Structures are given as C-alpha cells and as structure tokens.
Amino acid sequence: MSFFTSLSGLKNADTDLRVIAHNIANAETVGFKKSSVQFADLVATGSATDPRRSPGIGATIAGITQDFVLGPLEQTGRALDLAIDGDGFFALANPFSGEVSYSRNGNFRLTAVGEMEDSWGNRLQAYPVDAAGNPTSAVPADINVPVTNGTATLANVTINVRGIVIAAYSDGSTQPVGQVALATFPAPNGLRAAGQTKWQATGESGAAVFGNPGIGTYGEMISGALERSNVDLAEEMVALLTAQRNFQANAKAIDTATQISQTVLNLRS
User: Where do the Flagellar hook protein FlgE/F/G-like D1 domain residues begin and end (predicted)?
Assistant: First the structure.
C-alpha cells in the first residue's frame, strides 16, 4: 500500500510542477492569469472502521484554480491597446462560428473594412451608440468603424475611459461608433481556459453578465495600455523548489518501501 500512497504523491507533485512551469512560461503573456493546484488527502475509511486505526492512502488533486487578480498595467502608447482597470472581460466573437470567448488581452487592431479584432481575428463586441455616445441596445455586437465619412477618410480611432470608440476623420469631424461591452461571471473560477489567453463560459461559471465600463463593478478602460501577466516569478520559483522537494521525498519513500520489501523477501528465503 505504501507504494500506491507514494505514487499518488509523485503524480500530484508532477501536476504541481507542470502548473508552475506553465505559469513561468507565460510570465510575459499579456492578460495571462496564473493557476495553482489544490490538494486533498485520501483516507481508507468505512462504517465499521476504527477511527483510531484508519490509515491514509495518499493524496488527490481537488482542483486547479485560476487567480484573476489584476496584473500590472503597462503603457504602450498605442490607441487600440486596451486595459481593464478593474473587473470584467472583453467579449470576442469568432467570425465563422459566432462562438463568444472572453479575454483580458486588449491588444486589438483595425481591419481594412473597419472591424476591430484581436490577433486571431476574433471580433470585439460592443454596444451600438447614438450620436451622443449613449448605448441604443443592451445586446453587444461587432464594432464596425466607417472608414469614410462622406468625402473624408478615417484618420484615427480613440477609446475613452467609458469604452466609447470614437472615429476621427481627415476633415476634423468625429463620430462615436460603439461602446466596448464588458462581461463578468457569477463564478469566474468556473471558466474554462481555451488558450490564447481566452476563456469560455461553462455551467460552473454561469452565463456572462454584460455591462458598461466604469459602471458598478465593471472596470474603466485605459487606452494605450495592456495588462501584463499576474505571475510573480519570485513566488513561482519558491513554489517550484517546494514541488521539486515534494517529488523527491515521494520518490525516496518508494525507494525505502522497496528496500523494506526486499529485506522481508530475503528473510523469508
């Protein structure tokens, strides 16, 4: 039994090492959120078991949780770089499937036809607005920035703290074209990581609740900045050493159990 107990410790230490390595590998990934492994013990018990004689039979993984604490904000000076100063996720729609994913990575670009998208072509979701910049619908949709305004051509695009996307044209005119929609979740730890610093809603996370930047718990928009990874390398290196020692200790326990078994076999022979 000691072999299987130590084997469970080895497997758990290996998972811990992989999670820590993943955190370290993404220390410079924009919008990345670190994870940590939660463990639980296993005990051989039954209704007729004497509680004073119940042996432990190892450990198991209770879950891998993500830490959504705000990462440091870095100024980039690029107008279409957005950071959320507070709670919320950007909503991004796949142009082919329509599937919506959620991200804290605000590195966006403008296509030739005026669509705002991320590096993988997913469309940023926003509320349509009137001439005064007030939302006209509670249902977010793709942002479309008109590349011309009569005879004037698009000069630049700016985004204010309320998330209002404002198009400026060569004739000096300006036009609000949308307000960035932010999503929150009843239980963000239930989100499923989908890669590319994106998450997908699940039954555990609950459905997305959309809101306006700067209102209630939704964070304000900071244009010309990006949210860096919230990984603390010093903290991860300490955790890495601890996980390594844990792995070595369990391996040593298996080695000791092997020696004891060999000694018993030699006595019997």
Answer: 83-166
Q: How far apart are the first and last CA of the chain?
A: 22
Which of the residue ranges 88-102, 173-187, 246-260 would you say has the lowest mean pLDDT?
A: 246-260
| Secondary structure of the chain in HEC code, one letter for each residue | CHHHHHHHHHHHHHHHHHHHHHHHHCCCCCCCCCEEEEEEEEECCCCCCCHHHCCEEEEEEEEEEECCCCCCEEECCCCCEEEEECECEEEEECCCCCCEEEECCCECEECCCCEEECCCCCEEEEECECCCCCECCCCCEECECCCEECCEEEEEEEECCCCEEEEEECCCCEEEEEEECEEECCCHHHCEEEECCEEECCCCCCCCEEECCCCCCECEEEECEEECCCCCHHHHHHHHHHHHHHHHHHHHHHHHHHHHHHHHHHHHC
Contact yes or no for 92/198 (Cβ under 8 A): yes
Mean pLDDT, to the nearest integer, of 190-209? 95
Angle at 181 between CA 147 and CA 195, to 5 degrees: 95
Residue 131 in tokens: 């001439």
**Res 148 pLDDT > 70:** yes
- Looking at every residue in the chain, the average pLDDT score rounds to 91
